[in-house]
Write a structure and sequence with these properties.
75% helix; 2 strands; Farnesyl Diphosphate Synthase; two-stranded antiparallel ribbon; mainly alpha; globular
């Protein structure tokens, strides 16, 4: 039964992605023509080109699927403002990716160069300019994500509510990023701290915000439903973050688009690395600690840490954890049937389960 529900969710995600990607490409085509930028500037068009490239390069568009399906909980029509909300979500995601890659000093994103490293190649020996341009590119994406909502063909009160959701999500995500860096100063962060980082850095803008935006576009009163949305988003977010952390240590680069071990090189005490540190012997822990935060950490060292993790069953424990939280989210969604349309409820029931299954 789980596989059937998950497969249906997978098909919906694929359909949402196809529908949105065409719209996203058209948005960037129009942006290049309509955005009021300095006529003599050469750097501004290049910035827009890099944002377009990163935005269109890949991603499952899970946030967009959550948005579309949240509206479908209420109606099978496309309510005004829904498409602009989708653009806003993905532009805010682009902002986050650009800045994450700066913080992590990550050369690769979605199978291509990160925005930061693209600039570093264009300005060899001038890291200050490369850094400044990458920061500004991320900033521009965040401002565009808000501006697109103001241009939505939707009632003013809905646009205002949507803008409030996105501004709040953006601020909370930055707070999560700050706490993410703080976490890495803990020798062995507690699981509660990891859950808090996940809540602020990921869950609130990747799950809650799309759900809220979709329901707002469909005319729902968020106050009546926000608690059940939170009960769904929290375990779904933890399961998804565990999956990402698992793939960073155990994943295949040809599938993930990122080099394994990026969390190790950036010194990130993720769910996976916390589990390794907790289970390791003193000698093994010393090896892991020496590699954490070392950007020159070799593939061989990452492989040794992976073997330590496998020997201690960290892979099995992470899979069990992400499955447990996915099932908790699915159970919450199954209780939505008295409130919303069956076919959309089934999507939210299946999505966390598919998210776990698609890595195996």
């Amino acid at each position: 039964m789980d596989k059937t529900i998950a497969a249906a969710a997978q098909r919906r995600v694929a359909g949402c992605r196809h529908r949105f990607d065409t719209r996203f490409e058209a948005y960037f085509d129009a942006l290049a023509e309509n955005l009021d930028t300095p006529a003599l500037s050469r750097f501004t068009p290049r910035c827009l080109e890099l944002l377009r490239d990163l935005s269109l390069r890949g991603g499952k568009r899970l946030r967009v699927a959550l948005l579309y399906e949240a509206a479908r909980l209420v109606t099978d029509e496309r309510p005004p403002g829904l498409e602009e909300a989708a653009l806003s979500i993905e532009l805010l995601q682009t902002h986050g990716l650009v800045h994450d890659d700066i913080i992590d000093d990550a050369p690769v994103r979605r199978g291509g160069p990160s925005t930061y490293y693209a600039y570093r190649r264009e300005f060899p020996g001038d890291d200050g300019t490369a850094l400044g341009l990458a920061v500004l590119a991320g900033d521009l994406a965040s401002f565009l994500s808000m501006h697109v909502l103001l241009e939505a063909d939707a009632p003013a009160e809905i646009k205002q509510a949507m803008l409030g959701v996105q501004l709040r999500a953006g601020a909370e995500t930055v707070a999560g990023q700050i706490t993410d860096l703080e976490r890495d100063f803990e020798p062995l962060p507690s699981e509660d701290l990891l859950h808090t980082v996940c809540e602020y850095k990921t869950t609130r803008y990747s799950i809650l915000a799309p759900l809220r935006l979709g329901l707002l576009a469909a005319g729902e009163n968020l106050a009546e439903h926000d608690e059940r949305l939170r009960r769904y988003a929290t375990p779904a977010g933890i399961s998804g973050q565990m999956r990402d952390d698992y793939l960073d240590l155990f994943g295949d680069e040809s599938v993930t688009g990122k080099s394994p071990g990026s969390d190790i090189r950036s010194g990130r005490r993720s769910y996976a690395l916390r589990a390794v540190l907790a289970a390791a012997t003193a000698a093994e822990r010393s090896l892991v600690e020496s590699a954490l935060g070392d950007p020159r950490c070799t593939a061989g060292t990452v492989d040794r840490i992976r073997k330590i993790a496998l020997e201690h069953g960290v892979d099995d424990a992470l899979r069990a954890g992400m499955r447990r939280y996915a099932e908790e989210a699915a159970a919450e969604a199954s209780g939505w049937r008295p409130h919303w349309r069956e076919e959309a409820v089934a999507f939210f029931e299946g999505l966390p389960l598919w998210n776990v299954q698609r890595m195996q």
